Amino acid sequence: MVVCIIGTTLFIHLTTMFCILVPWLWPLRTLLSKLSFLVLNASTSLLLINYYLCIVSNPGTVYSYYQPPPETALELTPVMDYLEVDPATDVLSPHYCHSCQRYKPPRAHHCRYCSRCILRMDHHCSWIANCVGHGNQAHFIRFLFWSCISCWCCVLVIVARLEVVLVGAVRGHSNLEMESGELIIVCMNVVVLTPMVTMVSMLFYNQIQLLLTNETTIENLKKNRYSSYSYAGRRVDLNENPYDLGNWFENVQQVLGENPLFWLLPNFQFHSKPSWSGVSGDEEVWHRDGHWFPIGTHVQRILHE
Ligand SMILES: [Zn+2]
Ligand SMILES: [Zn+2]
């Protein structure tokens, strides 16, 4: 799958660039030709870099020494993700993964393809032969963004080229006709690009919707589990995502980083080694390492009513 995606991307990019854009549009040296040339090359480079980062990045491993917070800390946090009811004893107990034989932090899930628990797991993606989780979701969103730009840029170049040919044919300008070689390339690109642009755009739209509300794909699919759960010994009815911080900007910051100037650029800085160990650690370090996530004030209000 990885080889297939890289091969298809390079095929579309190189044929659009060297068989359509450079021979036809580039000699005109218009603003449009320069802009298309720049955007096409930059977006394809950025999509490939982010694709590589998605594949090689660790999506998020649970520390072997991770322990759920003590009961006193649970008083301050929604237990929905920390605890589950043991059906045998009907007692609340911390989430425990029997396959990995360790406790699961909030938002972590066991991936049966990767055979381990993944921090803030979004989904397992066969496109990248890896899970999308806390460690690489930012790369995945950037990869989708630059894929959309690259694909739509190719579509625009092909549409612009076809428009010139059609207008030339209508007006009888034989010098604007397409040669058979170029025609074959255009037809092949249309066949490959149509499903690709549809899929990438839909996936990107879906990821952006989740990003704006700070929700993972798994959480979105299991939305009903927010509806009612136990907190500090009482039942709480909650129909909202507790990790939604209330405004889209802060939600995006949770995944793409603090500074919006770097949201779309590749980030080669991998997560720092944990300086924390034990149970009563620094929440910020927990947060950076994907073992803890802040909850929205709207939810905190409901919990402390
Ligand atoms: Zn596990
Ligand atoms: Zn996986």
How would you sum up this structure, described in words?
The protein is mainly alpha-helical and 305 residues long. It has one domain. It is built from nine helices and ten strands. The protein has helices at 2-25, 31-56, 71-74, 137-171, 180-212, 217-221, 248-256, 283-288, 297-303, and strands at residues 83-86, 91-94, 96-97, 102-103, 109-111, 116-118, 123-125, 130-132, 228-231, 234-237. The strands form five sheets. A two-stranded antiparallel sheet has the order 1-2. It binds zinc ion (2 copies). Residues 97, 99-100, 110, 116-117 line the site of one zinc ion.
TL;DR?
The chain is mainly alpha-helical and 305 residues long. Helix content is 49%, strand content 10%.
Please describe the topology of this protein.
Blueprint: H1 2-25, H2 31-56, H3 71-74, E1 83-86, E2 91-94, E3 96-97, E4 102-103, E5 109-111, E6 116-118, E7 123-125, E8 130-132, H4 137-171, H5 180-212, H6 217-221, E9 228-231, E10 234-237, H7 248-256, H8 283-288, H9 297-303
Helix pairs in contact: 1-2, 1-4, 1-5, 2-4, 4-5
Bound molecules: zinc ion (ZN) (2 copies).
